[in-house]
Fold this protein.
Amino acid sequence: MHARLGRYLRAAGYDTAIAAGGLEDRALISQAVTEGRVLLTGDRHILSHRASRETEVIILPPNGLDGSAEALMTFLPLNWLMAPFSRCLIDNTPLRPAGDEDIRRIPVDARAFGDRINVCPECRRVYWPGSHFKRMRRKLETWQAASPEVDG
């Protein structure tokens, strides 16, 4: 339910696991406990599991992306500009600067960004500051401006 918010948390630089669809509550709780994570969910029923007391569980209302981000900021002191675009949006791996081979795989007009081109060492996805990056960056900036902990 909150996978899109998870991708924005990754875009902000936070180490964020996004649960695969169809996992049972116990498996989600177990993963959060094992990995020392805060569990974000819209499922209030998850609190009925005794194991949910072993990790922090934050219930977010189904208010769309902006509403979920706003609600999350009431629970956690987030800096949406902590380390923007330093993690892969797909698999959460920290990005590294792209090499020549990686750069040859992207559109010619995107190559002008030079040292701002990164690659995921796991999935090999290449990232550059194009239009998608700019839209996501604007959203992160908007959330940061609205955050009670403005540090960005």
